[in-house]
Design brief:
alpha/beta, 2 domains, six-stranded antiparallel beta sheet, 12 helices
């Protein structure tokens, strides 16, 4: 008997036809002993559309009311998929995040999961029902509806997989798996059969949209096998493996001391807020709940890199706290190379600099497995294409 958690993202459930397709595939592939839990996102751009409705009403909407509004998107999807499964002759039941026992802290808009108590899911699985869960949401310790931030349905799925001790967690999306770079912008991207947790985490934190970083953290902490695959084909995709297993695969493929770039991530439409480390700023940092992309601390100032999507909210929060940025720079982007042995190698760095010398590089930093390049947003795609061709396509 296998417990399988399947998560379907917004593009995968973006229309009635797509929802019917998912139901048909599940009916055709379900084994008699399988216990299936399905986590769903809101259909297509529903979450963004609900955001826009809220801001048509209020310039600064309540975070609590936003969570009540935004959580409706996933509830619509879960009910429609349950109905579609009924049409395929499968018994199913849909639950909200709170009904599923996902307990969070009180941070509206970007809540963290404290624990999962999914006894109702267990009860329905024992009745041979497929359980459909609204992702992206939970209930706080004060019994309020909360949302988990953008990409939160991935986190819901892996958290449930860890609680249920699932045999696998399958993340379905609109691409075939994890590629060496975004297949929308590079020629001949390579589909990776395996990625270890650490490299997947580096990709996720640096802009890869396939998996949310918090979901990868959950998978790594609880050693949950994760497979990223296409909701259109249901074919095998990319396995995110335990470190030890992945390491054995890596050393068979990589020559000793070879500098190998596994994949390239990127992030566009970023704003850099340069802020002084005053007492007011430190107080704000202690109570910060908004999602940020990256931070850099130099002397007595801190640079916060934030998606342009959040700019209005951040501007309002800084103003309310009496904090004036030293500077605010728009239209920035990051390109991040991920791999083993690529950092702390000056000849290798020099090669990279020669390849992208005309793209307006503003800063380069690194971690154990990454080289992170800050540059104007307009040059991000050209940078990804150049480095992918040089170090992956032609390597």
């Amino acid at each position: 008997m296998a417990i399988i958690v399947k998560k379907f993202g917004g593009t995968s459930v973006g229309s009635i036809d797509k929802i019917r397709h998912i139901a048909t595939e599940i009916a055709a592939r379900k084994q008699p002993d399988d216990q299936i839990v399905i986590v769903v996102s809101a259909m297509g751009k529903t979450t963004d559309e609900l955001f826009q409705l809220a801001y048509q009403i209020s310039e600064h909407p309540s975070h609590r009311e936003l969570d009540m509004l935004l959580s409706a998107g996933e509830r619509i999807t879960m009910s429609l998929l349950s109905l579609a499964l009924h049409e395929e002759g499968l018994s199913s039941i849909s639950f909200t995040g709170s009904q599923s026992g996902i307990l969070t802290d009180t941070s509206h808009g970007n809540a963290k999961i404290i624990r999962v108590n999914a006894f109702r899911i267990h009860e329905e699985l024992e009745k041979d029902k497929i359980v459909i869960v609204a992702g992206f949401q939970g209930v706080s310790i004060t019994k309020e509806v909360t949302t988990l931030g953008r990409g939160g349905s991935d986190t819901s799925a892996v958290a449930l997989a860890s609680y249920l001790k699932a045999d696998t967690c399958e993340i379905y999306t609109d691409v075939d798996g994890v590629y060496t770079a975004d297949p929308r912008i590079v020629e001949k991207p390579v589909l990776l059969q395996t990625v270890d947790y650490e490299e997947m985490l580096a990709l996720a934190y640096n802009g890869s949209r396939v998996l949310h970083p918090r979901a990868v953290e959950f998978a790594m902490k609880y050693k949950i096998p994760v497979e990223v695959k296409s909701s259109f084909t249901f074919e095998p995709g990319t396995l995110v493996l335990q470190t030890e297993e992945s390491f054995q695969l890596i050393i068979k493929e990589v020559k000793v001391e070879e500098r190998k770039i596994t994949a390239i991530a990127h992030k566009q439409k970023l704003i850099r807020y340069r802020l002084e480390q005053t007492d007011r700023m430190r107080f704000l940092m202690q109570n910060w709940t908004n999602e940020i992309f990256k931070y850099i601390v130099n002397d007595n100032q801190i640079d916060l890199f934030i998606e342009a999507f959040y700019a209005h909210e951040i501007d309002n929060m800084l103003q309310k706290n009496g904090i004036k940025p030293i500077s605010k720079t728009t239209n920035l982007g990051y390109v991040t190379l991920v791999g083993i042995g690529i950092n702390l190698d000056l000849p290798f760095l020099d090669e990279i600099l020669k390849e992208i010398s005309d793209l307006g590089i503003q800063q380069i930093s690194h971690s154990e497995r990454t080289i992170e390049i800050l540059l104007p947003d307009v040059n991000v795609e050209a940078c990804v294409q150049t480095l992918h061709k040089k170090y992956i396509q032609e390597h």
